[in-house]
Amino acid sequence: MPASPARRTALTVLRRVEEQGAYADRALHGDARDLDPRDRALAKRLVFGTVQRRGTLDWIIAQHVDRKLDPQVRAALLLGLYQLLYTDVPAHAAVAESVELAKPSPGAKLVNAVLRKVQRQGVDLPSDDNPKGAAIAHSHPEWLTLMWWDWLGADETRALLAADNEPAELALRINPLAGVEVDLPGRREDDALVVEGPMDVLTHPLYLAGAITPMSRASQRVARTVDPQPGERILDLCAAPGGKTTHLAALMGDEGEVVAVERHPQRAKALQTQVERLHATSVRVHVADAKAVTADALGGRFDRILVDPPCSGLGTLRTHPDLRWRATPQAIEALRVEQEAIVAAALGMLAPGGRLVYSTCTLSPREEVVAGDAVRTLPHRDGTDGFYIATSDGDQGARSEVPRLR
User: Fold this and answer.
1) What angle, rounded to 10 degrees, do the helices at 37-52 and 5-20 form?
2) Crossing angle between the packed helical segments 54-64 and 131-138, to the nearest 10 degrees
3) Which residues contact 58 (CB under 8 A, 6 or more apart)?
4) Element (H, E) at 193
5) According to the model, what pLDDT value does residue 399 have?
6) Active site residue 361
């Protein structure tokens, strides 16, 4: 019996991620578009879960295999192990379909042997009472586990590692500027609606009408912290894809001006499309480098400024499963330099008595570059993305006391 379309697609996407460095969510969006909704959901579950658990699965494979595997065989084995150990897929289906995915390679026999042995004997993972063991047991890079262990403590780190491997809640932002009533089942918090059950948001009529947009509850806290008022001038630096930009416009009743700065022309174009879909007529998109833009170029100083700079994204590992394997301490140090430069430029455009809000969707002390009143959300504690949101009165600049990563 041939493998199911969902598993065939999952194998193709996983190989693109492993061999070509593709992003799992983007590759899945392209390769799974022709599947029916049920198969598309299964393919996503298999790809995201296998990529998230890759560190643990690699450790298990190393206990059973002493040679380099053909890429197709390796991908099939990863998918089979993930299904056996972390899903409710019947064991016979997980084994049989993974063997089919490995064919016609002779390695299909190895896939069958390893999966059946794991099915019979299970696995004994290292204890998570130390950073090295926790990194293997919870499938995170060891350097990242150690960073959190030193920063947050052992108990918080173990809880965070476990939460990163759980499905993220589906949160929407309800957009009042659309003038459309939103009557969907779920839990309401301010403009946020946490949806119950699966939902294909991007094809939903309410999305097409601009009445809803996917946005985590943590992300929605950012614009509320900026607290824009009708008639004010607001600056949003590094604004694409526009979720926070359009939320700012909605919170001020679309009265005033939101200048959204984005340096990449294609991202700025996508931002403009988002602005139009969400009926935010007060937003003006400006293509420029946030580190170099000036108040004169933008028509004067601003009452409130949001700095939402490029970051490592370590607070979003549930929805971006491969980020944990892409981030490095060196990349974080480079990001900090850029973040500090953007904050410095922003402070030069803030009106006297104005408010600057700095936010990142990451959990990294080196990226908390702004002091001031701050809040940090944690996935295991708050049930949403990990964010750092700091408010400065304009007299506080970038931090210098945060130790460098190891």
Assistant:
1) 40
2) 100
3) none
4) strand 192-195
5) 52
6) yes
Please tell me the CATH code under which domain 219-392 is placed: 3.40.50.150
Rounded-to-integer distance, Cα 120 and Cα 49, Å: 22
Query: Pick the catalytic residue: 171, 361, 378, 389?
Result: 361
Cα-based angle 289, 393, 399 (whole degrees, multiple of 5) = 65
Residue 398 pLDDT level (bands cut at 50, 70, 90)? low
Closest CA to 322 of 332, 337, 312: 312
Omega prior to 214 cis, within 30 of 0: no
| CATH for the stretch 5-121 | 1.10.940.10
For range 97-101, the mean pLDDT: 96
Report d(CA 303, CA 321) in Å as an integer: 37
Q: Is the pTM of this model over 0.90?
A: yes
User: For the chain, what are the domain ranges?
Assistant: 5-121, 131-164, 219-392
Rounded to 5°, the CA angle 292-309-313 comes to 150
The string of DSSP letters for 360-384 reads: ES---GGG--B-SEEEEE-HHHHSS
- pLDDT number for residue 372: 87
CA distances from 137 to 93, 132, 140, 316 (A): 25, 9, 8, 19
CB count, 10 Å around CB of 77? 28
> Which pair of tokens denotes residue 352?
């006297």
Give me the residues paired with residue 257 across strands.
Answer: 233
